[in-house]
Request: fold
Amino acid sequence: MELLAAFGLMLVIEGLLPFIAPRLWRETLRRATTLEDGQLRFIGLTSMIAGLVFIILTR
Reply:
């Protein structure tokens, strides 16, 4: 049940930027397409580590 709640919260958070600032969101995606694979992987890894830290700190 907690996993579904976490997934729902993730969807809400990810939907905020396109809802509030669609132009900025579009420009951010445009810039992301110009990044190298290694740069995208580093961003993904950093995001995952930050998420794990937040999970550990809240438990």
Q: What stands out?
A: Residues 37-58 form the longest helix (22 residues). The chain has one domain: 2-58. The chain has a mean pLDDT of 94.
